[in-house]
Specification:
Elements lengths: L5 H11 L4 H8 L3 H8 L7 H11 L3 H6 L13 H7 L4 H16 L2 H15 L16 H7 L14
Helix pairs in contact: 2-3
GO molecular function, one term: DNA binding
Organism: Lacrimispora amygdalina
Protein name: XRE family transcriptional regulator
Length: 160
């Protein structure tokens, strides 16, 4: 098992995001040489850099500092800016996505539902049902409704 240092983890995040050192530095408000220094084994990383990296890439600070899982922070909210930044997106792409989302919600509800249905049918098409399985319940509850459990103690009829 290989133990990664904070320096290794920073380099890993940079590479996973598809950024070179200059691009990564730009996102953090640093210079390319500053990122190069942070990636060198044994180099000290400033708290402000750690907090910036965690914020931009939605990382658990304990993971970045010490390798303690989970790597990513799981939140109930979604940050479009953070997501676009984590994918190496540009300011223009962020703006375009924000405008597209705003435009979507300006549509009448029936238009949005139609768009959603079209999207779902293209991305998650329903599988054709095999006629062999027609009449077979999909859930245990449906099975019990179709074939109720018989209490043998109450019904002492001869079954055989």
């Amino acid at each position: 098992m290989t133990f990664l240092t904070i320096n290794d983890r920073i380099k890993q995040i940079r590479k996973e995001s598809g950024c070179n050192q200059r691009e990564f530095a730009s996102q953090l408000g640093l210079t390319q040489s500053g990122v190069s220094y942070m990636e060198q084994p044994g180099s000290t990383v400033a708290d402000s850099s750690i907090k910036s990296i965690c914020s931009i890439y939605n990382l658990n600070e304990e993971w970045l500092r010490h390798g303690v899982e989970p790597k990513n922070i799981v939140t109930d909210t979604f940050s479009l800016d953070g997501f676009v930044d984590s994918k190496g997106g540009t300011a223009e792409e962020k703006e375009m996505l924000k405008e597209a989302i705003q435009l979507y919600f300006e549509f009448e509800p029936y238009v949005r539902q139609s768009l959603l249905n079209t999207y779902m049918n293209k991305v998650h098409p329903k599988q054709a049902r095999n006629p062999l399985f027609d009449g077979i319940p999909d859930t245990p509850e449906e099975l019990e409704r179709m074939y109720p459990v018989i209490d043998m103690k109450k019904n002492k009829k001869d079954i055989g």
